[in-house]
Amino acid sequence: MKINVTIIGYGTMGKAIAKTLSKDSSIKIFTVDIDKKDLSGIKKSDFIILAVKPQDAINAISELKKYGINKKTILLSIMAGFPIKKLFSLSGHKKIVRMMPNLGLSMGLGIAAWKKEGLSSLETKKVKGFINKITENFEVKDEDVINKVTAISGSGPAYFILLADYLFKASKNLGLTLKESKILVEKTFLASALLSKESDYSMLINKITSKGGTTEAALKVFKKKNFDKTILEAVNSAYKRAKELSK
Ligand SMILES: NC(=O)c1ccc[n+]([C@@H]2O[C@H](COP(=O)([O-])OP(=O)(O)OC[C@H]3O[C@@H](n4cnc5c(N)ncnc54)[C@H](OP(=O)(O)O)[C@@H]3O)[C@@H](O)[C@H]2O)c1
Asked: Which one, out of 14, 105, 107, 197, has a CA that is 20 to 30 A from the CA of 216?
């Protein structure tokens, strides 16, 4: 039997999720974007994925309510800083999952955390099976963990890509061409991601660093400029914002 899925909000994440799910022949996808209000899939949906920006949630949910959400449907929101309590009160729906994925899922390398509310054990099993089709994931009991996950892995790809962008600019600043800089950063970035799976982070850094050498010279600057504190502050700020949005 087909699993019917409606994705509300066909932007970056909505498209990425649709692309991932479309590889599975057991899934039938309906997508709803702002200008294409075909909500014909709503009533028969096993899952409705809310993938609009938090500021568009009120509109999107009120449109959903006009069509009426089937009691058996599971409403799965991926909106950052949007608490289950608010989803309950806006939708009046009982079966809710709040999930924080990341864009890695578009590459088959996503990671997500999710929290359920109002689901039976059978429905929880169904949700697990469904989320497994989208991304690697784990369930959490405390909703605030979702805000923490948002600050680490939800926003995280942007942090790493920002670093890659700075390295790219530094490379051009040294006089390397755009093409050379791009391939150097890209390969280094990819290799570092794979290497980081192999052992402890500090052990890996030691492997690359020799006393009095070039890496050590660069790392000394990072240390002097409190790079660790910058990361800590940035992550805390993202977490704080997720909590503020949750209010
Ligand atoms: N991007 C990420 O890496 C990421 C990661 C984890 C979680 N999230 C969460 O995922 C959600 C979507 O993020 P995104 O980056 O994919 O945003 P996005 O690219 O702006 O996509 C949202 C889409 O929803 C459409 N939309 C707005 N109001 C609507 C309505 N009433 N009915 C149907 N569609 C509507 C928007 O259309 P218009 O553009 O025409 O307004 C847009 O196409 C956010 O809540 C975010 O917190 C994002």
From this structure: 197
Are 151 and 238 contacting, i.e. CB atoms less than 8 angstroms apart?
A: yes
Domain count, the chain: 2
Q: Which of 57, 54, 155, 50 is nearest to 102 (CA)?
A: 155
CATH number at residue 64: 3.40.50.720
The one-letter amino acid code at 72 reads K
Segments forming the whole domain that contains residue 31: 3-141
Pocket test of ligand 1: the residue of 10, 30, 34, 50 to mutate, having most ligand atoms within 8 Å of its CB, is 34
Closest protein CA for atom 41 of ligand 1: 34
Q: Which atom of ligand 1 is nearest to the CA of 103?
A: 3
Residues 197, 106: one domain? no
Alpha-carbon gap, residue 58 to 154, rounded angstroms: 22
CATH of the domain at 214: 1.10.3730.10
Q: Is 118 in the pocket of ligand 1 (CB under 6 A)?
A: no
Q: Which of 7, 8, 10, 12 to mutate to test the pocket of ligand 1 (most atoms within 8 A of CB)?
A: 12
Ligand 1 pocket member 53 (CB < 6 A): yes
State how far Cα 118 lies from the chain centre: 23
Query: β-strand 74-77 against 47-50: which pairing, if any?
Result: parallel
pLDDT per residue rounded down to tens, the chain (247 residues) = 799 999 999 999 999 999 999 999 999 998 888 776 667 778 899 999 999 999 999 999 998 888 889 999 999 999 999 999 999 999 999 999 999 999 999 999 999 999 999 999 999 999 999 999 999 999 999 999 999 999 999 999 999 999 999 999 999 999 999 999 999 999 999 999 999 999 999 999 999 999 999 999 999 999 999 999 999 999 999 999 999 998 8
> 54 CA distance to ligand 1 centroid (A)?
8
